[in-house]
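#struct-help
A.M.: can someone run this one for me? Single chain, 511 residues.
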Amino acid sequence: MTFHSILFARAEDRLTHERSEAPAFLADLNLDQVVAAITAGRQAYDLKPFFYTLLHDVDSVHYRHEIMRDLENESLLESIKSFSQKMVVVRRYLALIGKLEFKYHKEGWLLEAAVNYCEAVTGLVRDLGHTDLSSRGLLEFRAYLTSYTRSHGFESLAAEARQSKAELAGIRYGVIFKGSAVSVRKYKEEADYSAEVEAIFERFKQGAVEDHRVKLAIAAGMNHVEAQILDFVARLYADVFAGLDRFCVRHGDFMDGPIAAFGREIQFYVAYLEYIAKLNQAGLVFCYPQVSDTDKQTCVKAGFDLALATRRVTENAPVVCNDFHLQGPERIIVVSGPNQGGKTTFARMFGQLHYLASLGCPVPGREAQLFLCDTIFTHFEEEEDIQNLRGKLQDDLIRIHDILEQATPRSIIIMNEIFTSTTLADAVFLSEEIMERIIQLDALCVCVTFIDELASLSASTVSMVSTVLPEDPAVRTYKIVRKPADGLAYALSIAEKHRLTYGRVKERIES
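D.P.: on it. Structure tokens below:
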């Protein structure tokens, strides 16, 4: 039987080109930090391309959800980790062979790699056989692995590897040095005088003595003298080494392709589950979102910014969660409110949730219903680039024009405080024009802005506002709630910009 992938529900999806570079929007959403943290220490698996490639159909997302749920079984997860660690050793041995010079040295490491490979595979098929599985992916892989380990090819590989290693382990020989000459002969049961010598000198021992023994470094390399000795041993035990030669000829390419691919791909799940486990322990919850590629109604309860939460948990600081929903014709969330109130964090959270959902991963939140997007476009404020000879306003317009040219009805657009470099009247005019284009496109969007007029532009727009403590407006709650824009945020922003807030004016008077 065949098995194509533990990551992709359809064989044709497995054959698509892996995305090697991060999407442009990843840094704006701080997802580059998240991916870096998830894949840290797993460079050998090259996992980042998996986190750069979105799924585009609901069944593929469900395929990964099923596997994630199975892997919540700690016993199964430990079995997978054990298998992965053994496969890392196998790959390390195989990589080493290409760096070695001498024939039997290479063959010895190939044999060792094969022995470890067989132990890893037989251990995994045993553990999977004792586990209740429900996911299509792991059930299909277990069936494939069971069939593979019962095949003549694998049984022959395992038996010959054990036999060859046992024969080599039984070899005994002696090395005789005489001047610069070295001779090798079979071991003749010569007496071991080391115990007798130690007993003679024991009588001269007075108290604790310094240990002058030198520990020799154990290395994988072999010098020419050692290689020559090994050649002599091979002549003395010709039958054993002929068996090693036959083994290497027959099984030089012993690694099964689907099993090797599984060993890499399964790390996508293991890495993500280990990453969110630390946040679970801090009391933050994750859920498997309901996803749709047709219904744009969305709802999230107790969502949070994953990158920020990781940092806050490390600092032992609280994490503020937020809810939002879009229903009926609603497509655009317009977020307003005072500076430093969590608006940008909310926008990032919106993008992160949809991105992670499109990877088939559990998302931050107690409950989530999300749209399966084709991609995400972000427009976050950037410093003016003197190299392109454009002013900031022109640069903003060009960037947004490019987004609108590429976006589809299945895209998500996130804009964070656009047109801050122009007058309020111009900013209102340009923003309304852009919002009209997004409304016509019927794309989901979050727009962080000080322009309250955008919140009531049409039935497609929803107003959400970052809140402060009623008794002390200077204290931010970081809660973003659904309510009409109050018109205070822009005035406060202007006052802060010109140092005309009560606190700033008071400072100047007192000084």
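A.M.: thanks! The longest strand covers residues 472-482.
D.P.: also worth noting: The chain is about 50% helix and 15% strand.
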